[in-house]
């Protein structure tokens, strides 16, 4: 059964067509990367999936239910600074559950420890490094009751080394908790390293240009980043994105 | 305390120098006391006249606190109302700004005609000068709510109430405090102005009595009392802010200013 199903979604603001006939799906427990140039309407697409914006055409389905324009069905992690500065890390991590109704402090503490943030439960976000903040906001998504996690370029503000660590950490957490993830990025390498499937979007109006299934077995080690097969994939996707 | 001392010694030094120059001038040019008393005379009056003005001072402090609490509560309620109901904001925001163009000093006699010489017209005057900075600051704070966090709350299915209490309100707290700081000093001024209009007690009354009997030294005592009260209320708000807003990163370069 398909988990998330985007069918023929289009969006235009007046004369400008931002999204054009976008269809794809994310299966249960699957890691899908949306790859597109900056300004290709990815955030518009996210707003539609998150239900805070209506598409001009098309529908969004989750587990067979129509969630077009319906909020609270997915868990969203924005690009940066998505933690509330006035909440401690523990309270931040529990926010998703709080909105849905019930707090599970026990589990949150476990997850915080698992993410290497033990000792920071009572700290405020500004006391943490960028990578630690991203880890905390990702834990918040995992703890939220929603089955699908949307990640909007979560590592784009991090330096290269922290980013690789974070990618590996994300993969390990994901393989343990098996949530469906829709990951937006404009970094080809990141998309290949993380995803089961890559959906390449074109520039305005955004439309699905091509879909690639990434065959690398899991668990993936950082060693594959330098293999020939990996570079071949990078080349293929790069050429696909270059073609107009 | 250390930072206050490190930051404060320069203006304190200037102030002391100013007083010394004033004192010397008053002595050299032999300025009569009723025209410009020397600082030493003002200080002497402030100490010996304590029993004269202590009653006035207590009454003014009471008025300021009551007025400030009522004024800021109204300011907060108005801001929340205007923020949550867009129609009200469109209808009332311009009127709010117009209301601030009417000088309080003009409005005050009217209030006395309508409400007499009791507490009520005075509290209305303080409320009028107090609520505006708070409403404007708080509305600004609400408006500047972080958009990423807003999207997060909305997509997570947060209700309007949850979004307000978990996101918009805490986000606007620093703005609220900048409004409160302005209002705290305004409320002191508002209290003194309202006392000029007719009261039996208060620093404003003490000041009018002193000036009409050419007790210039007492006028200066009143001025210093007003300044001290303003600073005191300002400091109380800052202390409250520090207690409530722990998350704000410390200001950079506090301890090692060199230029």
Automatic annotation (TrEMBL), chain A:
UniProt-recorded Gene Ontology molecular function terms: ATP binding; ATP hydrolysis activity
Domain of life assignment: Bacteria
Keyword Endoplasmic reticulum: no
Keywords: ATP-binding, Nucleotide-binding, Transport
Domain ABC transporter: 4-228
InterPro entries noted in UniProt: AAA+_ATPase, ABC_transporter-like_ATP-bd, ABC_transporter-like_CS, ABC_transporter_ATP-bind, P-loop_NTPase
One Pfam family, short name: ABC_tran
Keyword Endoplasmic reticulum: no
Listed PANTHER family: ABC TRANSPORTER ATP-BINDING PROTEIN, TAURINE IMPORT ATP-BINDING PROTEIN-RELATED
Protein name: ABC transporter ATP-binding protein
From TrEMBL, chain B:
PROSITE patterns assigned: ABC_TM1
Residue ranges of every copy of the ABC transmembrane type-1 domain listed in the record: 57-237
CDD domains, per database record: TM_PBP2
Keywords: Cell membrane, Membrane, Transmembrane, Transmembrane helix, Transport
InterPro entries, A to Z: MetI-like, MetI-like_sf
Example of a GO biological process term: transmembrane transport
Domain of life, per lineage: Bacteria
Keyword Cell membrane belongs to the record: yes
Main location: membrane
Topology with respect to the bilayer: Multi-pass membrane protein
Sequence intervals crossing the membrane: 12-29, 63-85, 92-117, 123-142, 219-240
GO CC field: plasma membrane
Compartment(s): Cell membrane
Similarity remark: Belongs to the binding-protein-dependent transport system permease family.
Name the record gives this protein: Nitrate ABC transporter permease
Organism: Oceanobacillus arenosus
């Amino acid at each position: 059964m398909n988990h998330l199903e985007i069918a023929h979604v289009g969006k235009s603001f007046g004369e400008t067509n931002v999204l054009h006939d976008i269809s794809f799906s994310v299966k249960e427990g699957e890691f899908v990367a949306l790859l597109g140039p900056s300004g290709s309407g990815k955030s518009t697409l996210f707003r539609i999936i998150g239900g805070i914006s209506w598409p001009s055409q098309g529908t969004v389905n989750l587990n067979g239910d129509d969630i077009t324009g319906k909020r609270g069905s997915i868990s969203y992690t924005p690009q940066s600074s998505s933690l509330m500065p006035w909440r401690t890390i523990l309270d931040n991590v529990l926010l998703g559950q709080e909105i849905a109704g019930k707090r599970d402090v026990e589990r949150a503490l476990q997850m915080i420890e698992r993410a290497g943030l033990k000792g920071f439960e009572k700290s405020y976000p500004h006391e943490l490094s960028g990578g630690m903040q991203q880890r905390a906001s990702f834990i918040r998504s995992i703890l939220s009751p929603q089955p699908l996690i949307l990640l909007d370029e979560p590592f784009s503000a991090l330096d290269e080394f922290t980013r690789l660590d974070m990618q590996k950490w994300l993969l390990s957490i994901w393989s343990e908790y098996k949530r469906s993830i829709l990951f937006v990025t404009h970094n080809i390498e990141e998309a290949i390293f993380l995803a089961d499937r890559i959906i390449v979007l074109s520039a305005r109006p955004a439309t699905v240009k091509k879909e690639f299934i990434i065959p690398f077995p899991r668990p993936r080690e950082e060693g594959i980043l330098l293999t020939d097969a990996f570079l071949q994939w990078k080349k293929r996707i790069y050429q696909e994105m270059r073609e107009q | 305390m250390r930072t206050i001392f490190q930051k404060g010694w320069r203006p304190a030094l200037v102030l002391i120098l100013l007083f010394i120059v004033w004192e010397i001038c008053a002595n050299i040019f032999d300025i009569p006391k009723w025209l410009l008393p020397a600082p030493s005379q003002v200080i002497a009056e402030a100490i010996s006249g304590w029993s004269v003005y202590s009653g006035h001072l207590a009454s003014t402090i009471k008025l300021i606190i009551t007025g400030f609490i009522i004024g800021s509560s109204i300011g907060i309620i108005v801001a929340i109302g205007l923020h949550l109901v867009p129609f009200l904001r469109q209808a009332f925001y311009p009127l709010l700004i117009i209301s601030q163009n009417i000088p309080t000093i003009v409005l005050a006699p009217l209030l006395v005609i309508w409400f007499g010489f009791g507490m009520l017209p005075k509290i209305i005057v303080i409320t009028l000068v107090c609520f505006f900075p708070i409403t404007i600051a708080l509305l600004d704070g609400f408006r500047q709510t972080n958009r990423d966090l807003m999207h997060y709350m909305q997509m997570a299915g947060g209700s309007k109430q949850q979004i307000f209490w978990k996101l918009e309100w805490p986000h606007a707290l620093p703005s609220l405090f900048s409004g409160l700081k302005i209002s705290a000093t305004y409320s002191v001024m508002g209290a003194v102005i309202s006392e000029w209009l007719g009261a039996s007690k208060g620093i404003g009354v003490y000041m009018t009595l002193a000036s009409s009997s050419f007790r210039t030294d007492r006028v200066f005592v009143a001025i210093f009392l007003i300044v001290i009260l303003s600073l005191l209320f300002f400091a109380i708000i800052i202390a409250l802010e520090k207690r409530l807003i722990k998350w704000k990163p410390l200001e950079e370069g506090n301890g090692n200013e060199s230029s």
